[in-house]
Input
Amino acid sequence: MPDTTAPQKFEFQAEIKQLLDIVIHSLYTEKEIFLRELVSNAADALEKLRHTQLTEKEIFDDRLDLEINVTTDDKAKTITIQDFGIGMTRAELVENLGTIAHSGSKAFLKALGEGGAKNANLIGQFGVGFYSAFMVAKTVKVYAHSWRAAEPGHVWTSDGSGSYEIEETAGQRRGAKIVIELKDDCGEFSQDWKAKEILERYSAFVSFPINLNGKRINTVQALWLRSKNEIKEEEYAEFYKFQAHAYDEPRLRLHFSADAPLSINALLFVPKENTEKLGFARTEASVALYCRKVLIDAKPKNLLPEWLRFLKGVVDSEDLPLNISRETMQDKALIEKLNKVITKRLLKFLDEEAKNRPDVYNEFYAEFGLFLKEGAAMDFTHKEQITKLLRFESSLTEKGKTTSLADYVSRLTGDLKEIYYLVGPNRNAIESGPYLEAFKARNLEVLFCYEPVDEYVMNNVREFEGKKLTAADHADVKLTELPKPEGALSDADTKALTTWIKDTLGDRVSEVKASDRLVDSPVLALNADKFTSPHMRRMMKAMNKDGAESPLRVNLEINPRHAVIKRLFENHVASPEKAKLVAEQLLDNALIGAGLLDDTTAMVARLNKLLETV
Ligand code: ADP
Ligand code: MG
Output
């Protein structure tokens, strides 16, 4: 019989030496994750003990609480992670900590059989996490005592270079205590605040209590894994504030789980405020990805589409095929799948909110609608669903009330195939501009778009439920004939006048004609350029882009029923000088209506001249 009380030296398996080298030098990008790994192991050991307690009567130190204690000593430069879990026997120390990629957790699951394979509470699966301790350690000591009372306690010691020692030691509590003597350049991990920061980041939701130097760290539960009807509003709010580092209350919440095609537990929040709208920097995607309550990535890039970057919360998927360092997802297709499932679910949720709680939805929309517009314009996969969620005021709504495109379409009569919209700074500007009257006279609804991005969005969305989105101020728009009112210029006179105006204004207009749109206004400028609309032009100008300075060409339409036009007809023969000033002024008026008059000084000078003649 070998003397088991004397220290015994073991060489690590050759593969372990290689593995150690990889783990220490290249597997992990952040040294601090050693603490996540050791705490995860401690949690696994406690979970295994919990299981063992169900079947075994005699358990060593049975009164100990199932908890994890982390202590730091910044004088001695050590950090210690102790758990009262299942512990390890001498043979287990050799097998679990000295053999290549031997994961005791995997073996445990296997031993549990069918049911065990589904135990989602166990975190370990690769059998390398433990070695991450050597990234920061000069030496690692593992004091262990198995739950089996008959086994003595041991201490396992190694500096991670090639060998380890095991020695029997008396007075051990059940479980494992890992004492790390830190390398000189890793002294910070013996600071209480540093350990706190790391534990809070990665291990805040571990199911067993974690105490750091006697103080409880994880007070907030992994709510996403609990069932909805057990959770109180306040708990959700508390969770949101904790997880998102937020000070406001959440505005909307979606808590769901799915089994197919992937197991997902998600708890998502829409904050109260849209900080991008307030002028802060672009929001970073921050729905965190967890695997079995352990943080994998606080800001995973492609978990959700760009336009959902305002969401907060957690997505946990227990069957993520993580790479061995648990830092990235191995499978790109899988994260895409996750992305699809969550986005679809969220869109459905917003649609239901819009139906069931329209007031709440509208408030949400007022704050976060810009993101939906971005989605409608850029997210080809979900365009239709997102477009359904957009809201606009229209010529038929009251000020401040909105309509959806679906409702607009439901009001279309006959075989009308277009959804008309006008872009303008506000309701007043659109209603008093010249473009709306033709649509009003024909009982056609027009959506009012007040935001600079709207035009871009409408252009990209293009159509909805088979109806084309059409700018009401575009020259191509064809409207039905209205009965000719009394007292208009005759067709011949109108023709003479339009020809004269075209000659007089020259290159500033590409075409002058009698309007079928105008009812109350004398003139109207229509955009003759398909590619740069007035609003686009203004945007390009603001951004100093080419094209803004290209000569502006508009179609001018005149209203042969309007008093000003009738006077102009008389004057263009009787006093052509004055008529020329009036024609120029009318064009400028039309350009102002279209938001296209760049330079007003010439106009003011001319207007003064005109006033002299009154
Ligand atoms: P994994 O956790 O993926 O299984 P690790 O390298 O982190 O791999 O750990 C290897 C094995 O060592 C574990 O599976 C477990 O059997 C054992 N082990 C590690 N830490 C403890 C602990 N605190 N208590 C009991 N066993 C442990
Ligand atoms: Mg582990």
The domain at 393-612 is CATH 1.20.120.790 (Four Helix Bundle (Hemerythrin (Met), subunit A)). The chain has a mean pLDDT of 88.
